[in-house]
Specification:
By secondary structure, the protein is of the alpha/beta class. The protein has one domain: Rossmann fold, CATH 3.40.50.150. Helix content is about 35%, strand content about 25%. The chain has a seven-stranded mixed beta sheet. The longest helix is centred in the C-terminal third of the chain and has 13 residues. The protein is globular. The model has no long low-confidence stretch (mean pLDDT about 95). Bound molecules: S-adenosylmethionine. S-adenosylmethionine (SAM) binds next to α3, β2 and α5.
Length: about 190
């Protein structure tokens, strides 16, 4: 078995080309995308949240696995990235791409609940973490990536990662698995 042969979502290459044109440098790893697609498919009629749309690369894995009754909200505060993502998801009923600050959005929407939250931005991970976790339904997933050292980490970021892991470890309402695979993932289920 190898874990390199991964069938890409239909629109992945086109989004990748558009991302290359603007030199978007923060795409999620293919293995992370593949894992997301697998987990999303386990939640028929699911409601999903992505924090950090970027140009829509990880969103393509999410949307590909969603059934007709599932919906996703994806948030990014960068207008250029959001505009590119919007070009590739012409499905207003199921896919909502919102260009706004995710910290404020998390604070403003405390009553929303999701079957899976993919936190791929600073908000919902290194800040407003409790707000994001409170949106995960019982039995739902909270997923984070980039937990292993990455070339684009700012100086001192290792300390943030350590603190985040320690904080998650002491929460009694999460069952989680750390994966030293892909860019370093933690998969958590709310109990
Ligand atoms: C790691 S990238 C996301 C990559 C994307 N999920 C993908 O797979 O291509 C992080 C994203 O978070 C966005 N971001 C950073 N701070 C933010 C904030 N306060 N609110 C919303 N988005 C933010 C950045 O613009 C960037 O696109």
């Amino acid at each position: 078995m190898d874990d390199i042969t991964i069938k890409l979502p239909e629109n992945y290459k086109s989004i990748q080309d558009a991302s290359a044109k603007i030199k978007f440098s923060m795409p999620s790893d293919l293995k992370t995308g593949s894992l997301l697609r697998t987990l999303i498919a386990s939640k028929p009629e699911g409601q999903f949240l992505e924090l950090g749309t970027g140009t829509g690369l990880s969103l393509s894995w999410i949307v590909e696995a969603m059934d007709d009754k599932s919906t996703v909200i994806s948030i990014d505060n960068n207008e250029l990235y959001s505009a590119i993502a919007k070009e590739f998801f012409n499905d207003d009923k199921r896919v909502k791409i919102i260009c706004t600050d995710a910290t404020q959005w998390l604070k403003n929407n405390p009553d929303l609940e999701f079957d899976l939250v993919f936190a791929d931005a600073w908000p919902g991970k290194y800040e407003t973490l409790d707000e994001a976790l409170s949106m995960v339904k019982t039995g739902g997933f909270y997923i984070i990536d980039d937990m292993l050292p990455q070339s684009n980490w700012p100086d001192g970021h290792e300390e943030n990662v350590k603190k985040l892991v320690a904080h998650l470890e002491q929460r009694a309402d999460l069952r989680f698995t750390k994966l030293n695979w892909s860019t370093g993932l933690i998969i958590m289920t709310k109990i």
